[in-house]
Amino acid sequence: MDGYPCNNMKDYCYSGICESYDSQCESLFGKGAKKGPNVCFERANSKGDRFGNCGMKGSYFVRCSQANSLCGKIHCTSFKQENLPSELYFQTQDGISCVTTEFDLGSDIPDPALVNKGTSCAEGKACIDYTCVNASLLGYNCDIQKKCNGRAVCNNKGNCHCDPGWAPPFCHESGYGGSIDSGPTHIDTSLRDGLLIFFLLVLPILILLAIAFVKRKEIKRRLFRERRRHQRTENAQQRRPLPTNQNNNPREPNPQEEKNRRPPTSNSGIFTISHFPTSRPPVQNQFVPPQQRPPVRPPMSQRPPVRPPIPQYPPLRPPIPQHPPLRPPIPRNTPLRPPIPQKPVFSPPS
């Protein structure tokens, strides 16, 4: 807002810029340039020429009074030689060199070397139309302590822009800061977060529950089939007989067989012929294990129904003859029409 104190309450804002002599000197003569002493303003601007005036009236330059000398041509120091414009005016006051310049941009465009409007020329005063007047004339009418409770700054529309933690328009309640013009600095995303949770979490669960409710009968049928198949497998394993001998005892090793069993020789892989027959051990009655009985099949009522085999290839159609039968030939010399009978000739009686 125009007239709002800035730069540690030393200067004033105007048109969104914190106006000061130092910032204007840097824009004209480069970085590092600063405001010259007041005596440079008083002596140069009181001449009323190109390099010292308080504006123009018609085609003549206006001299500045001592009270308004700080609102005429600007005079700077601490400048660099390579950043100077072509039109310059130098003066030395109390051993300090001051410089100013002139820009001829036409009668309708103010000279950029004149002090900007809103620049503080004294305590509580600012430059307006080359005159040092009270800063209240800049239009600042927002009392931060009374209107904003000391918790905000005033924007260019005269409304409180509250600090973070306080709500507009008067910054006396807790909130997210901001103003009624620029809105709060915090964006409420509760609605968006709620919609995301509903569509990504709640809605899929509801869809799954609806599908399970619609197909509950089919799910129960499948579970019942799996349970019956498992019970049939367990019953078949329990009814299968275990292999036993005639005395229903496991077979014990025969010591005579172990004694007569010849150990393998080292040259068992080589075929040899003995010229002298060796005595063979007497043949003894060896125990023949009983044959195992095949497992008892369950009755027909408990067997699963056997489906008829499905033919792999569909039946073929009867072949279509390559040459269809020809029609019987029509005789060429046959009469097309039957002969017309001739009338009998009657002779008169004699």
Automatic annotation (TrEMBL):
PROSITE patterns: EGF_2, EGF_3. Residues 291-350 have a biased composition (Pro residues). Disulfide bonds join C162-C171. Residues 265-277 have a biased composition (Polar residues). Pfam families: ADAM_CR. Residues 138-172 form the EGF-like domain. The chain crosses the membrane at residues 194-214. GO terms for cellular component: extracellular region; plasma membrane. It is found in: Secreted. Residues 281-290 have a biased composition (Low complexity). This is Disintegrin and metalloproteinase domain-containing protein 9-like. It comes from Thamnophis sirtalis.
